[in-house]
Structure formats: structure tokens, C-alpha cells
């Protein structure tokens, strides 16, 4: 395995860990699948369909999201938004993220 | 958007019935919106080549469907180490059982080559069966979310150093050696024909050693049972070390008796007229003595190693 492949693999693993947080943060406002994907891409988080849709389904199954089918722009779409449990989870994960981020920053600066 | 609908239908065909309608509706809605955004007019929208180019950027339908499945594996990383350990042990035990059955078969029919050839297809199908059974049990453990007690209930004090972990390959080697000797000792596979063919001289057991037939058989069977038991044991214990040392010591005494005292083999008188009889007989006697000497040395070294293990056992 060459260096670039190893780098790509590690980068993917690193980003995968924070995808849940990214998705939860954007679903404080209502989105359907494609609009959520575009929104994330605009903010620098590229995520393919194969990852995003199963992820939001898993989050919904865990009770962190609520969804409903609605007609929008002549098409039936499924809209997602954070549930109450999702909001609490986002708050806790956000706190954790800031702690990890601060610890890592000091570690990386020290290195 | 015919081709997009086909893509979604194919993805849906790989999903479970509970997920199918919901996921395919959402996927179609999303893909058709993306496609519409890319098309400049109605003509492009219905153009199959445009749809094809768009679908080419997506994953294979089977791969796309696989993301929705909760279980992407038969045996996951948490269960795999235990699965691998059990699979290896089961394979070794089956191999030992096969060898024992082989010996029983040879003893009862006395047709060595034919029966080995007959039993080998059974050996491979048996090994496949072992693999399938162990895998099925562990897939069930993985699917039902059962926890393996081994991982939760362990005591640091029960751990031992690598020198006390049993080597399965050496156990199998010992097991096979004992089985070969057992077959040979009971005259089921004879080397004397081969010897007489090349040296012109035959061999037979001396009367004193013939009287020992039952004792030697008992020793060999004890050894076979012991090595079969050792296959499922992970580490050496004091009792195990003592038992194997005792077996080795008995063998050493017997073999030293054969080298220094009562010879094990004698050349029958019928061969006394063979040309160069004396030289051939001397060569054979020396060869036997050296071979037995080598076996004694190996057993002695093994017993010394066992002695060192005994000191390390708690």
C-alpha cells in the first residue's frame, strides 16, 4: 500500500468519526436527504449518498431524528429534523468535540 | 426517468421487505432531483444516454443496498478471535479422530493402501463439515448478540508465558509417529520386505521382545490417547508434564534395553546363505542401533525440555 493510499484511508477514518456530529448539527433545521447533502457539501463536508442515507436512517431508528413525508416542489420528499433526544445528544457530543478538539490542538502544538 | 427507476428498483430488490418501499421512494426522489438539476431541458431529461451517464457515477445497486444492511459480515471482529481459536482446535481434534479411525480400520481390515485412499475423500468432506458447523454456531452467536463468556470471565493469574503454551504441530507430529509405530509394531505395515529386497536379509523380533507385544501396544495406545487429549489443551500443567515425562522415561528404558541389552531384532537363519550375509547383518544391526539411539536422544531432549517446563509450572 503506497503512502497516498494509507493517507486516504486514514483521512476517511478521521472524517467518518465526525460525520454524525456534522449531520446532527445541520438537522437543527429541517432538511430532506438531498438538501442536507448539498448543505453539508457547501460547508465543506462531502458525503456520498451511500453513507448519508443509511446514517440518517440509523439516527432516526435511535430516536435522534424525526421525519415526515411531504409534497414539495411537485415531488414527495422525506423531511428530517432533530428530535428532543437528538438535540440533547447534539449538545453532549458538541461538548465532547470541543474537549477533544482542544486536547488535540494542544497535543499537536506540543508535537 | 426510466433508467433511474430501474436503478432504484434493482437497489430495492436487494433490501428486506420492511425497508423496500420506504428506501426506494426516498432514493428515487433524491436521484431524480439531482438528475433534474443536471439537465438543461426536457429533452435531456428523457434522454436515456444522459440517464446512463448519470447512473454511471453511482455505486453498483448491490453495493448501494448493502449500506442499509445492519450486518455486513458473518462473523465480526469481536467474535472472530474466539471463532478462529475454536475452528483450529476443532480441525485438530477431527484430524486426531480421523487418524484413530484410520488405525482401527487398518487393524480390522489389514489393507493399508486401499483404505487410506478410500478414507481421504471422507477426510476432506469431514473437514468441510467441521468448518461449516463451527461457522454456523459463531454466525448464530454474532446474530443473536450473545456474549462470549471467555472474554468477560478471565483471571490474570491463569495466564502463562509462551514457553508453557502447547505446540499443536508438535502434538500432531507425536500423534502421527505413535500411530505409525503402532501400525508397524502390529505387523500391519511391514518394512522387512523392503529391507530384505535391498539388503538381501530379513528381520524378525526376538522372542524376548515378542513377549512384550501387549506392553508395547498398551504404551502406544496410551500415547495416542494422551496426544489426542493434548490437542484440546492450551497450556501445560504440572500433572501433564509429569505424565508425558513418565511416558518418555519408560520408552527410553525400553529402547536402551534394546540397544545395550536384549536386541530387538534377529535375522532368521534362512538368510544365512545370502551372499555377504555377515556384512549385511552387521550393517543392519548397526543401523538399528543408531536409529534407536537417535530416538533415545530425541526422547531425552524432550524429557529435559519437560523438566524445564515443570519448574516453570505453578
Number of strands of chain B: 2
Q: Span from first to last CA of chain B?
A: 75 Å
Number of helices of chain B: 14
Which two chains have the most extensive interface, and how many residues on each? A-B, 16 and 15 residues
Structural class of chain A: alpha+beta
**CATH homologous superfamily grouping of chain A:** Winged helix-like DNA-binding domain superfamily/Winged helix DNA-binding domain
Query: How much strand of chain A?
Result: 15-25%
The average pLDDT of chain A is 91
The largest sheet of chain B has its strands arranged as 1-2
Q: What's the SSE pattern of chain A? A: HEHHEEH
Overall tally of structural domains of chain A = 1
Question: Spans of chain B of 5+ residues with little confidence (pLDDT < 50)?
Answer: none
Helix content of chain B: over 70%
Task: Count up the domains of chain B.
Answer: 3
Integer-rounded radius of gyration of chain B: 33 Å
Give the termini distance of chain A in whole angstroms. Answer: 26 Å
Question: What is the rounded Rg of chain A?
Answer: 16 Å
Summarize the helix and strand pattern of chain B as letters. HHHHHHHHHHEHHHEH
Figure out the total of helices of chain A: 4
> What is the CATH architecture descriptor of chain A?
Orthogonal Bundle
Polypeptide structure, described:
The complex is a heterodimer of chains A (111) and B (314). Chain A has one domain: Winged helix-like DNA-binding domain superfamily/Winged helix DNA-binding domain (Arc Repressor Mutant, subunit A), CATH 1.10.10. In chain A, strands 1-3-2 form a 3-stranded antiparallel sheet. With 111 residues, chain A is α+β, with helices and mostly antiparallel strands. The model of chain A has no long low-confidence stretch (mean pLDDT 91). In chain A, strand 2 and strand 3 form a beta hairpin. By secondary structure, chain B is an all-alpha fold. Chain B folds into 3 domains: 65 residues, no CATH class; 83 residues, no CATH class; 155 residues, no CATH class. In chain B, 73% of the residues lie in helices and 1% in strands. Chain B contains 14 helices and 2 strands, in the order ααααααααααβαααβα. In chain B, strands 1-2 form a two-stranded antiparallel ribbon. In chain B, helix 1 crosses helix 4, helix 9 runs antiparallel to helix 12 and helix 13 runs antiparallel to helix 14. The N and C termini of chain B lie far apart (75 Å). Chains A and B meet through helix 2, helix 3 and strand 3 of A and helix 2 of B.
